[in-house]
Amino acid sequence: MRDTYRDREVSSPEVFFDRRRFLSSLGLGLLAGSSIRCARGPRRIPDELLEPPFERPELFPASRAVRYELPSSITRKKLTPREVAGSHNNFYEFLAGQGGPVGRHVARFEVEPWKVEVSGECHHPATFDLDDLFAFDHEERVYHFRCVERWAMNVPWSGFELRKLLEKVEPKSGAQYVRFTSAYVPDQMPGTRTTWYPWPYQEALTLAEAMNELVLVGTGVYGRPLLKQHGAPVRIVVPWKYGYKNPKSIVHIELLEQRPRTFWQIQPHEYGFISNVNPNIPHPRWSQEHSFWLDGGGRFPTPLFNGYEEHVAHLYPDEPRHPQPPLGPNEVAR
């Protein structure tokens, strides 16, 4: 299938990718002098590892939703090249303890057939297979993505609003939180051999966050179904939060009355429950004031809420807007 997403300007979809410029950019260090592992730049993976695990030509590419343009604070409007976005990922079930070429470790992972159970504090619990999920009206949105490790990219996700799925199961009045559980298949996921992590991966949002129009059930990227390293076949996309709040390969969504524990509470002073992108709140081991383009395009100031303030600021009236001191080991991150 011809790739029409190479190095596109978001405002000019006809511009194609300059291969020589991309290859030279891979030689640039992204975070010179940093201790973060992606500082050396993404390591290109073979083309066959950039092929989706299945095709749905009747659905992808989905129509672009132009009402969701990149935030004005993101002055670089160019899409991150598909090859770059697929070559460096954080997905600990396959590559534990670091970000990197996850695509090299996903060959045994089976993503079809697939089911997502929705249960808990809802009137109509249900299980959705891929045909059910693909039956929702899909659209493509270009979102700015920010990892807690400071690297960033502009990505065209395809999917539908999570609130449409939640409305189908009809949350009960007591539901206040939504927990997501990722697949845990040890014989297909080599990273799960590391026993010090609390598998399976679980993340959560408040119900108010989950019902925000920006939150997507992601089923595609770059006009095709999700790659395994991106969280195939279905993931959650929350553009104003750090990447770890965007769980991949989800199998269970549960509505809850009480705030649940999440995966990264094993390091509570580094990774909090809210975890909005905020340049005023440093990670204990690095500043979040600046971000770095994953494809080597330099650094830029990190915008509050990743640039999506107009959509989500009302959810966080107490969000820090002035520089905060780094947290110590006995403190709990926001």
Strand content: 15-25%
- Describe the main β-sheet briefly: 7 strands, mixed
CATH class descriptor name: Alpha Beta
Q: Which structural category fits the helices and strands?
A: mainly beta
Spans of at least 5 consecutive residues with low confidence: 11-37
From the alpha carbons, calculate the radius of gyration and give it in angstroms: 19 Å
> What would you give as the CATH superfamily?
Oxidoreductase, molybdopterin-binding domain
What is the count of helical runs? 6
- Corresponding CATH architecture: Alpha-Beta Complex
Compute the average pLDDT.
90
Label the overall shape.
globular
Oligomeric nature of the chains = single chain
- Percent helix: under 10%
Question: What is the H/E order?
Answer: HHEEHEEHEEHEEEEEEH
Count of separate structural domains: 1
> What is the number of E strands?
12
Strand and helix map with partners:
Blueprint: H1 19-25, H2 82-85, E1 115-120, E2 126-129, H3 130-134, E3 139-146, E4 151-161, H4 162-169, E5 177-182, E6 202-206, H5 207-210, E7 216-221, E8 224-225, E9 235-237, E10 250-256, E11 290-293, E12 299-301, H6 309-312
Question: What are the main properties of this structure?
Answer:
about 325 residues, mainly beta, Sulfite Oxidase, Chain A, domain 2, seven-stranded mixed sheet, five-stranded mixed sheet
Characterization of the model:
The chain is mainly beta and 334 residues long. It has a single domain (19-315), classed as Sulfite Oxidase, Chain A, domain 2, CATH 3.90.420.10. It has six helices and twelve strands. The protein has helices at residues 19-25, 82-85, 130-134, 162-169, 207-210, 309-312, and strands at residues 115-120, 126-129, 139-146, 151-161, 177-182, 202-206, 216-221, 224-225, 235-237, 250-256, 290-293, 299-301. The strands form two sheets. Strands 3, 4, 7, 8, 9, 11 and 12 form a seven-stranded mixed β-sheet that branches. Strands 2-1-10-5-6 form a five-stranded mixed β-sheet. A hairpin with a 4-residue loop joins strand 3 (139-146) and strand 4 (151-161). The chain starts with 18 loop residues before the first helix and ends in a 22-residue tail after the last helix. 43% of the residues are buried. Mean pLDDT is 90; it is low at 11-37.
